[in-house]
Predict the structure.
Amino acid sequence: MRSTLEELLNKVNIVDIVSQHVKLRKSGKDFLGLCPFHNEKTPSFTVSIEKQIYYCFGCHEGGNVINFLMKLENMTFQETLENLAHEYGVEIKKGGTKRSNSFDAMLKLADFYHHNLKDTKLAREYCARRGITSDIIDEFKIGYSDRSRLKIQTFMKNSGIPRDVLLNTGILRVKDSDVYDIFMGRLVIPIFDVNKKIIGFGGRTIEKEGFPKYINSPESPIFSKGTTLFGIDKTRKYITEKNEVFIVEGYFDFIALYTAGLKNIVSTLGTSVTETQLTRLRNYTDNITLMLDGDEAGIKSALKLIGRLSDMDINGNMVVLPDSHDPDSFIKKEGIEGLNRVINAKKPIMDYYFDYCMAKWGVETLENKNHFIKSVLPFIEDIRSGVKKRLYIKRLSELTGVEEHHFREEPRERTTEGPSGHFISSSMIERRVIGALMGKPGMLGILKEREVINYIKDAEIKEILLNMCEFFDKKGSMEVNNFINVLEKDSLRVLVTNAVFDVAGYEDNELEMVLLDYFKHVEKKSTKDELKKITERLFEAEKRGDDKEIVELLNEKKKVLAFFKTNQ
Ligand SMILES: [Zn+2]
């Protein structure tokens, strides 16, 4: 029986999926586009319709359609598989039911809370006071959990979701054989993933003494605070369109701004922005603006991201709202015009920090100057772009009167990428061998017969070849998009896809030549190694004056040389 994965890979066309995210144009047998995983101006992202794989010659990312979606949407293998299977009507054969059950449970809970809100005057009035209109309530499927245990019990009985699945969400709980839910007395806001499935909830108390003000549903296999972007299901297209995203820190801030007309935004779940969230957003834009409180904690959390932003080639800006407003209160007071004014005054995070430190320390005394430099310099050093870094060093120098060269790091030695010149490095050759074997898997037999693997030093190449032999023995075929799923390390998958594209233009007989040449080369090399060893032993024997061994070694050498010549 074919696995779900194989069935899917058979059914899905990688070009269809990739072209939903990347503008592709035909180029020979393949398709070419701008890589979604790194910043580039000339396309090096290649998709092979024939092989059903992609590879980027710029950032060396490659794989099959599953790897593409995993990387792009930052989802796990299982998540990607389930989503695709759902989309293509492929039944998931085993182990995949638990998650869909939790999705069902979440959806049923959302409906339950949503109806509750409509039935509860107190909650409706609270919403009206806060400017949460019934349109907003419907659009965001906002709900309310009252304190009625009877309602929860009835819901559990009638939901059609098994009791243990509901309890596994961690939202409904049992205490002294009584069921309660963690959101009692709170507005409940469903959190959707990119695919518009509910993965969790946020809850805001509407009671004066309610504490804490905000809570989230517990972390689960489908929900993790640090990776979730609230609102992305609604705003993804605006973010791509405007090529910019604003990040706020709470769902009510999001809702306030979104309904006021700022659509290219997302929100964290009340926490600072994480690297994972940045990586996800990087799939849609490289202009990221944090909309934060202008206090030290806000700036510090933004600063922590400077190195990472720079690594990812993201332009990281900051907007600080005046008079310790949060986005929700600000938009209510100043409207969208006021917000646009503030947005237009956004600054790079580093500039903000410069201003902030200047206000805090100043450069009047030597001591203050020292504090200023010590606060700013480490973050400048985190900037990867040479130009940007030099500009900030220049500014630091101008502000403090300390000469630039005091701030400059010693230029680091660049390691060269493999041997240069007209020699092709051995790993290049071996990569081509892997590519050729993918096309001519029948020749894996010769590879095994001549024990070629024993002569390969590169551990990754060795691991791939061993896996290939095993895969071909088992399946009798060698489709690359299937094969890469058995490789455990990402680096191996990338190496294989790279290898396949390396030999993409080769004819069948050329592939054969590559392999035969290589096998010959390995044999020669092993002979040479053997000769070298004999010579070393000869040298030792001569030093000792061991005539008997000398004669034996000379004979051995003759034999090896004879073998070498007949095999030339
Ligand atoms: Zn790339």
Remarks:
- The two ends are 47 Å apart (CA to CA).
